[in-house]
Amino acid sequence: METSTAPAEEILALSGPRVDGNFVRKLREELKMSQKEFAEYLGLSPGTVATWERRNKLSAAAAILVREVDKRTASQRKSFNSVISEGIGRPSESH
């Protein structure tokens, strides 16, 4: 029995929203990271992240890396956003 490997572009197309520069910027902002911090997190140069966002295009390998970061941090971002939207941690207005 033969196993075939699909090209990375095909895998990306089947696994969720398109990963482009806008996706990278939104993810980075949700993580409350600068381009420099996000690049360090990924082990890349800040110029690489800036280029992704500016040109709005990533290689298939870069898109897979960013998609993995998105998956791994989704619950963390969701928890943080729900805390903010529910107003937990705000000082009480009753005196």
Counting helices, strands and paired strands, the structural category is mainly alpha
With helices defined by DSSP (H or I, 4 residues minimum), what is the helix count?
5
Strand content: under 5%
Could you estimate the helical fraction of the residues in percent? 55-70%
Structure description:
- This protein is mainly alpha-helical and 95 residues long.
- The protein has five helices and no strands.
- The longest helix has 27 residues.
- The radius of gyration is 17 Å and the shape is globular.
- The model has no long low-confidence stretch (mean pLDDT 78).
Write the layout of secondary structure elements.
Elements: H1 8-14, H2 21-30, H3 35-42, H4 46-55, H5 60-86
Helix pairs in contact: 2-4, 3-4
